[in-house]
Amino acid sequence: MARATFFILLAATIAVYEATQTEKEGEKAQEETCVLMVKVLDAVRGMPAAKLNLKVLKAGEENSWQIVSSRITDNDGEVHNLSSGTNFTEGIYKVEFDTKTYWKSVGLNPFHHVTDVVFEGSKLGHHHYTLAVLLSPYSFTTTAVVRSKHK
User: Fold this and answer.
1) Which of 2, 22, 55, 83 can bridge 36 by disulfide, Cβ–Cβ 3.0-4.6 Å?
2) What is the pLDDT of residues 42-98, one digit of tens each?
3) Could you tell me how many helices (H) and strands (E) the chain has, helices first?
4) DSSP letter (8 states) at residue 15
5) Residues in domain Transthyretin/hydroxyisourate hydrolase (predicted)?
6) Vertex 41, ends 36 and 44: CA angle to 5°?
7) Residues 6+ apart with CB under 8 A from 83
């Protein structure tokens, strides 16, 4: 009986270890492809800003902007994989949040029509960028977490 219990516990430990390794490998693969993500919070309602339209643009020649991607935040106020490592090259980027449409959808009249976060994509190699934005109809604040590529 003790021997059978030992083998059951050993098998369970191996299964948990393998599942953890698979999860870590999946996170690592996503990290290598996802270099830009956002998290948006609604300060008025104290919850994630779900269904907020946003665009990622890259500065081009003569003060022009080219769209890199266009997405909508999920129920957690997040968008992952806004840009992959292959199309996120050195340069100036802008994430444009359509705050007017968002606030109108929840019955509020905002001052800001859009909220832009403009930043420089690293000249020092591959990085991961996480933009956090806290919104209200008359103000916004933002912060960024920039990490080097994991080795």
Assistant:
1) 83
2) 999 999 999 999 999 999 888 899 988 899 999 999 998 777 555 677 888 899 999
3) 2, 9
4) H
5) 31-151
6) 160
7) 34, 35, 36, 56, 68, 69
Q: pLDDT at position 80, please?
A: 87
| Beta bridge pairs of residue 92 | 120
β-partners of residue 71 are 54
Q: At which residue do the structure tokens 């890199």 appear?
A: 68
What DSSP letter does each residue of 31-75 carry, written as one string? Answer: HHHEEEEEEEEETTTTEE-TT-EEEEEEE-GGG-EEEEEEEE--T
pLDDT of residue 24: 43
CA–CA separation, 17 and 56 (whole Å):
38
